[in-house]
Amino acid sequence: MIQIEKILDYAIKKDASDIHFISGNRPMLRIIRDLVPVEDTEELIPEDMSEIYDYLVKGNIDKDNVFRQTKKLDTFLEYGNRRFRVNISLSGDIPIATLRIIKNELPKFEELGVPDIVRRMTFQPQGLMLVTGKTNSGKTTTLNALINEINETQNKKILTLESPVEYKHHSKKSIIVQKEVGVGGDSLCYSDGVKNSLREDCDIIVVGEIRDKETMEAAIETAESGHLVIGTLHTKSCAETIDRMINFYDIPDQPTVKYLISSLLKLVISQRLLKGTDGKLVLVPEVMVVDNIVAGLIRKDKLSVSEIEDAIQSNLEKGSIGLINSIATLFVDEKITLEQAKAQIEEKNIETLNRTIMQLRIKKNK
Questions:
Q1: Global pTM value
Q2: Secondary structure (3-state) at 122
Q3: Residue 164 contacts by C-beta under 8 Å, 6 or more apart in sequence?
Q4: What is the pLDDT of residues 86-145, one digit of tens each?
Q5: Are 179 and 160 in contact (CB under 8 A)?
Q6: Per-residue pLDDT tens for 322-366?
Q7: Which of 105, 67, 68 is nearest to 86 (CA)?
Q8: For residues 247, 131, 357 and 341, what is the CA-based torsion angle, rounded to 10 degrees?
Q9: How far is it, in rounded angstroms, from Cα 132 to Cα 165?
Q10: Collapsed DSSP state (helix, strand, coil) of residue 189
């Protein structure tokens, strides 16, 4: 019999971010980007995975039906004083499970390495802000740190839509309402939750993930009606984020959408996490503040990713931060290696990176 709770305790003790249960493998932990087997465990067999499935679903008929029908399930587990985000799927018709450990204490916003312009932009009365990045880039942590910062400093009603709810917030200076999205949750889908927020007298709506046209349309409509909407997208750069937003729509609708995005979008932060020279994770941010120049580029008939990247690089005085600048700064501050820095950009930009590093070193030594 597999000792599931012993593995959970071990993962918490080792400060792991994720736990992987896969038949034919020992239980594995993700610790600062590395996969490490749990000590004193054996390879999991199908019977173990059935036992793990039962432990995670806990006899919930609705959740079990969702898994049987869709062959996947996103849910959460509460164990001790911790919450775990749970994903269950199939491999070879055998359940596999990935658990993300949610830390009890959110790091302070200033501890994350997120530029202060992102926090300041939350004081906008309306518009659209996006936190983007690939999977495991820290989007959820940044998003919840922003929510906590607003909660402590502004008098707002904040509605969050999440699948599942990870960090539990408690109202402070603001009122916070958290809703779980999905079958058996508080809202069947993100788009429904966003649309209904218009009747809930909210100031800020946080959308855990914008993954389809319906949710994007609802977010734009809500921002247009006088709310601040903060959402996340799975994109690897600020320019790619704009491209993804536009391509949710059919070509005949894109000119109208471009106009709306250029008017409503206030800021995009695209982030990456690297293993730093001290063994800890380091945030690599790219920030795009949407000014008149960027808005004009968004409205153009043909979107140019390189033009947007150039606009970010030339808009530093307004708070934008180019990816190359961000990487170069981390290298000059000895937080990442030169190899890591070069690996984050295309070959054609290596010369620009070297030049930026030289400029930063000269400035630092003055």
A1: 0.86
A2: coil
A3: 74, 75, 76, 85, 86, 180, 182, 185
A4: 999 999 999 999 999 988 788 888 888 899 999 999 999 999 999 999 888 889 899 999
A5: yes
A6: 999 999 999 999 999 999 999 999 898 899 999 999 999 988 887
A7: 67
A8: -80
A9: 18
A10: coil
